[in-house]
Amino acid sequence: MADAGEDPNAERAALRAAVEERYDFERFGAAEMAEMDLEEWEAAFDPESWVTGEQLLDRIERELTARVALREIFGVIERHAGPDRVIAYSDEGYAVVRPDGSVEGTGTIVRDVEPSVALCSIPEYEVLDVPDRGLPQPEDVTDGSGALGTMMLQVVAAIHLIVGVVLIAAWVLVRGVSSIIAPVAGLGFLLVGGLLFLIVANARLSDRFRAEQYRNRLRALEEVDPTSVGGGDHPMTTGDAQAERRG
Known about the structure:
The protein is an alpha+beta fold. It has a four-stranded antiparallel β-sheet, with helices on one face. The chain folds into two domains: 91 residues, 2-Layer Sandwich (TATA-Binding Protein); 83 residues. Helix content is 55%, strand content 8%.
């Protein structure tokens, strides 16, 4: 408990300075929110100056759209009226942001949206300004972008294999080469070359697997019925909505 002679405003300013030094609010996310206790939160964010209402929703819409463009959030961002709200939904859940800054929904996207809502509520925070680049179409997703690195590894692996074969062939075919160093070195080059080719093959398989996972998520997202998001306990797929209408 603070002493009677201590200035509460000075204590609050000191705590706020400590919070600003500890956290990088340009990269503030769910992990940082979980670390902050109530005193740190109240010191960093003054409730009396929070942005609310239509201005808050405008800022949140821009912020979340930018984070989708930067691939920090996987989902679709939409603005709805009656009542006014911002909706973010993915293949695994949804989040609805109200004008008072409250967030409701399900899935991991709620955890992705909440830090952005907190930041956009701060007047001093500059909302990200990134050109709107929505999620790609499933057929536009490539298997990987490391073609140059993969090619370089293949070249290095091929050189090692060639050198290994030459050393072993020289030991076998060339008269006068009786040192054991040549075949041992040759085997070493062959092992390194084979290992590099194995790394390349594994990288390609991993790229294909990740790309296919991403395509599957994009296809699942296309099946989400946005008209049902926020209207029930969870978003429905198009097929679910059709089945409900038939019932």
